[in-house]
Amino acid sequence: MNELRESDDVYRRFQLIVNGPALFNAVVTGVELGLFDFLSGRGTATAAELVEFTAMEPHKLRVLLLGLTASGLVEKTADGYANHPVAERLLAATGPESWRHILRSWKTLYYPAFYHMTAALTAGTNSGIQAHEGTERTLYERLAHDADLAEIFHSAMSAFTLQTMPGLLTHLDVGQTRHLLDVGAGAGTNCAHLLSAHEDLTATLLDLPNVIDMAKTRLPAELTDRVEFCSADMLNDPFPTGADHVLFSHVLDTVSAEQAMSLVTKAFDVLPSGGKISVYGFSAADDERGGPLAARLSLYLNILATGRGMAWPVAEIAGWLRQAGCIAVEGVGDLPYEHAMVVGTKP
Ligand SMILES: C[S@@+](CC[C@H](N)C(=O)[O-])C[C@H]1O[C@@H](n2cnc3c(N)ncnc32)[C@H](O)[C@@H]1O
Q1: pLDDT class for 5, splitting at 50, 70, 90?
Q2: CB–CB of 266/238 below 8 Å?
Q3: Within a domain: residue 3?
Q4: Based on the structure, what is the number of domains in the chain?
Q5: Domain of 181: which CATH number?
Q6: What pTM, to 2 d.p., does this model score?
Q7: Distance, CA of 322 to CA of 336 (rounded, Å)
Q8: Within 230-329, where are the H helices?
Q9: What is the tens place of the pLDDT at every residue in 35-73?
Q10: What residues are in contact with ligand 1 under a 6 Å CB criterion?
Q11: Which GO terms describe its molecular function (predicted)?
Q12: DSSP β-ladder status, 202-207 and 179-183
């Protein structure tokens, strides 16, 4: 029976999933203690050296290292402990793209909310949001009440944006674009990279007021004269005119299908003939059998962030663009991180 189970992929996945929260937190603790950085600098360290570095009780460190070696992110050899290349690449890095920012946000914001999943899904509301100050309906709006949490959230979002940036830079066609309207631009990470890569491109960043304030401080000084900022509620305020390309990057997944249709129509209406709409983000497989990143994001959106939306399949996004009036609608799925790009043109 055991042999049969060990060879069963679903059984192995089950064990990983149900033990995952403990291993997830072991990895976060490793980051918080600077253990991955220490191993990165040293190459290899003995248990005694790690005890000295962390100033932990030897037994507590032993237990933590068991968790980290079980995760595979730390390797145990005859010489001691070392980072696996995945840990070296994703966790020991200190840049803005480091997964450490994402893990900090998942520990602080995401996973406490997942406790409320059954209640939230059965009640049909994002009841996980009750842990956050305010009366607004979305996490994005409530974060305006907590600058520290907003910083954690947007640093994680920027890190994810940087991880998924290669797909955007490769598949977003701004060759003929003069002015890009980036709706739900976040802290401006996408725009900073796009403007750096295309010297004639200008852009408007549209987001909620507290996020635009953050974007203003984060955007590299040399780009500010090519950028306009627009503090607005994308759902209720009109879109600014003047752009010939509208980008929704990781935005339509946060809203309902009806709201997505309305946003795409608003974009269509402000574009000139020949203007483009590009939709980039997580996307579930068209048959909705996965994958895990799309599933996690869709659950998070519904129990915490907005109470609606999902990692929409390509066919659905393409349908909105056609319904709005776009022609030459094309979608590219299967991009890294379960992403897709769907593009349409105003005739
Ligand atoms: C998941 S983030 C995407 C950020 C960025 N576009 C990216 O690709 O990384 C969603 C963004 O939409 C913004 N947003 C959510 N609701 C909004 C609203 N009603 N009006 C304007 N922006 C909104 C959030 O503040 C957040 O910056």
Answers
A1: confident
A2: yes
A3: no
A4: 2
A5: 3.40.50.150
A6: 0.90
A7: 25
A8: 257-270, 292-300, 314-324
A9: 999 999 999 999 999 999 999 999 999 999 999 999 999
A10: 138, 140, 157, 161, 184-186, 190, 207-208, 211, 233-235, 249-251, 254
A11: methyltransferase activity
A12: parallel
